[in-house]
Amino acid sequence: MTHVTIRVSDDPEICYRLRASVFIDEQGFPEDRDAFDDDAVHLLAEHGDRPVGAARIVFSRDTAKIGRICLIPEARGGGLGAALVRTAMEIARDVPGVTSARLSAQVTAMGFYEKLGFVAEGPQHDDLGVPHQMMVQAL
Predict the structure, then answer these.
(1) Model's pTM, two decimal places?
(2) Could you give the CA distance from residue 59 to residue 56 in angstroms, rounded to a whole number?
């Protein structure tokens, strides 16, 4: 998919709808929204004016937690997921005092995040029936 732009969204509802289509409709999670959404920075990837991917960053003290990374099926496999993560990390680097990025990876996606420089930290955990692994990278 060419000519995709990634930007901070001024309308998080677009990101929420895209996330619901991936996490709830496609992957079967019972919910996607949480209390962190209100204070998060929401990233939106668009092909023209069509939303094709999203992610969020939640800042807490010296950490940027990157999460809710999702792409519609036809946007997968072309590097857009990596571009979303890299954009989130660039934004986090610009926040004074933030020294690390963390994420909770689905275990099946750990290799993807390792290629981006993340390393596993601590034991695996269950998130709504799906095995996850906390991963971290210094900024």
Answers:
(1) 0.94
(2) 10
